[in-house]
Design goal:
The structure holds two protein chains of two kinds. By secondary structure, chain A is α+β, with helices and mostly antiparallel strands. Chain A has helices spanning 27-34, 91-99, 108-121, 127-133, 145-163; strands at 6-12, 15-21, 53-56, 59-62, 75-77. Chain A has two domains: 6-81, Ubiquitin-like (UB roll); 91-165, [2Fe-2S]-binding domain (DNA polymerase, domain 1, Orthogonal Bundle), CATH 1.10.150. In chain A, a hairpin with a 2-residue loop joins strand 1 (6-12) and strand 2. In chain A, helix 2 (91-99) crosses helix 5 (145-163). Chain B has three domains: 7-52, Uridine Diphospho-n-acetylenolpyruvylglucosamine Reductase, domain 2; 62-172, Uridine Diphospho-n-acetylenolpyruvylglucosamine Reductase, domain 3, CATH 3.30.465.10; 180-266, CO dehydrogenase flavoprotein, C-terminal domain (Enolase-like, domain 1, 2-Layer Sandwich). In chain B, 31% of the residues lie in helices and 26% in strands. In chain B, strands 4-5-10-6-7 form a five-stranded antiparallel sheet. In chain B, strands 11-12-13-14 form a four-stranded antiparallel sheet, sandwiched between helices. A three-stranded parallel sheet of chain B has the order 1-3-2, covered by helices on one side. Classes of the chains: A alpha+beta, B alpha+beta. Bound molecules: flavin-adenine dinucleotide and FE2/S2 (inorganic) cluster (2 copies). Residues 28-36, 38, 73, 100-101, 105, 109-110, 112-114, 116-117, 122-124, 160, 165-166, 192 of chain B line the site of flavin-adenine dinucleotide.
Amino acid sequence: MSEALLDVRLSVNGVVHDLRLPARRLLSDALRHDLGLTGTHVGCEHGVCGACTVLADGRAVRACLMFAVSAVGLELTTVEGLADGDGTLSNVQQAFVECHGLQCGFCTPGFLTTITAGLRENPHPTHEEARDMIAGNLCRCTGYQNIVKAVERAAELGSHERAEGS
Amino acid sequence: MKPAPFDYVRPGSLADALAALSDDPGAKVLAGGQSLVPLLSMRLAAPSTLVDINGLPGLDGVEVTDDGVRVGALARHADVLAHDEAARVQPLLRLALSHVAHPTIRNRGTTVGSIVHADAAAEMPVVLTLLGGSVEVAGPSGTRTVPADELYVGPLESSLAHDEIATSAFFPALAPGARVAFAEIARRHGDYALVGAAALVEGGTVRVGYVSVNDVPVVVDLTGVPVEQMADAALAQLEPAGDIHATADYRAQLVRVLTERVVREATADE
Ligand SMILES: Cc1cc2nc3c(=O)[nH]c(=O)nc-3n(C[C@H](O)[C@H](O)[C@H](O)COP(=O)(O)OP(=O)(O)OC[C@H]3O[C@@H](n4cnc5c(N)ncnc54)[C@H](O)[C@@H]3O)c2cc1C
Ligand code: FES
Ligand code: FES
């Protein structure tokens, strides 16, 4: 009952939050329950499904395999932080719309964050690399084909942008 | 489920981290958390204190010399995998690391954490054993070097004491003329291997290490055995076990296939 609370400062999507949390609060729960950022989904809670994937200093990580206290000092990006301030979808989000990359949408936040980081590292994936990029995320609906297409479409949108110099 | 309550400390020095471990016999080290946090969430482990070593300075490096590759305790799998010099000096590192979990797990999980976690289904303990590497360990009475063949004492059990911290692992360089190969069969690339095999062919010796076959990392010496008979020779020294992922017979069959595959690859004309 009298579990000790720690001061935890989290920086999420560019906003700094000061929280008082028990040490055992998973980062996924801190985002959802304490900050109300319910875009980060929780499926398996042991690292297997990828629904909880967020970016920490730009790298994709499982929010369910980190404690919020250990995320201090990291710049976190959740699915809520992918679109522009005015609501313009990111390339990856736009590609999911165009390619019908989701059905129920439960897995989608984890795919969007994973692919966002993946394309930053490898902006021109081959078909095989596009498949590999999402191999750590589970989807029970789509059968993955349209998600792979969305990876390739997002890469294409990215190259157009670079060609236009924006 | 959620983890049971624990005290949390994030020391800023190795001395403080060692002191925190000595202070509480129920304390555990938290590195990348990619193996430990699931165990806590499933309540298979309930340490009274977590000593988070992610704030310790100077442990995130990958140092490469002609002698080999030294991987610091906070170097993530992804850092080691991306290190071109490390891959040049010891190619087996990259060959094996590309099979360790998915990129998202590799971004956080540490190679040293995987080595001391001592899972027989993990690639890097076998790699360290096959290469004759070692782990540098700090404890209350100073530091010691533990050779890989003294590190694994039982399933998920290393010879580290509860109050010790592994600060780095050392993978010897590939000797001139020596060759390595790695292959594994998994349901999906990135899942734990049903069986994995790593070969080291060096100055007339042939040794093969196996992932997910015995309940500890295991290396078999196949020097002088004709390639067609190697799988039988290996199986005579192995104890493939059945579990929900594969039957013992299927594992034995994978040992046959992979032994020949990695040995042929490591001895093929270049
Ligand atoms: C979905 C998923 C798939 C995975 N697939 C694979 C796979 O295919 N192959 C594979 O090898 N691994 C796999 N892993 C595990 C991953 O490689 C882990 O990163 C690794 O096993 C542990 O490293 P860590 O830094 O995360 O350690 P932690 O989880 O933090 O710690 C693991 C254990 O080691 C101890 N420990 C850690 N570091 C030290 C240290 N420096 N000194 C003393 N004790 C220490 C901890 O106390 C704990 O008992 C997978 C994990 C997940 C979640
Ligand atoms: S909820 Fe984190 S990986 Fe499934
Ligand atoms: S769209 Fe339903 S789980 Fe992926």
